[in-house]
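TODO from last week: model MotA/TolQ/ExbB proton channel family domain protein.
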Amino acid sequence: MGGRLLETFLSFFHRSEQHIEDLMDFGGPVMWPLLAVSLLLWTLVLERYWFFLHALPKFLERPVPPPHSSAATIGMAEMKIALRRHLRLIKTLSGILPMLGLLGTVTGIIETFDLIRLFGSAETRIVARGVSQALITTLAGLVMGLFGVGVFYNLNRRARAFERRYAERLLQP
């Protein structure tokens, strides 16, 4: 039973890998920067969720300094820095992804017109390939960008909530 499950998983993994390779080929050269930026975005997002789920509770368990002391001010500043880490970069990468998708759209259309110029006619197969490339990169950029924006707002909301909780905790006698 275990061997069959492993074989099924490996088969699924191989098919998925082939689909990703096909998608990268169909999307053209802009798909590689899209992939790189997406991987960086996912890495930062996973790091932030790990921080909120594992590191932050330990940070909140530390003893609270007396209210209105320099230690309380430093503690609040440390907390704000820790909470906001990488959030601007996540927001920026989320804005870059749709722009990369648009770049892929433009390169796909340019490639289509170059092929039409080269072959002298607007053969549907040539046009379809270029338009397909344009749409794939646009879709990939928009989907990943929208994902990043949604996650950014979720992480930002969590950061503000923890910031308020920590400030209230510092002000309690």
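Done. Residues 68 and 171 are 8 Å apart (CA to CA).
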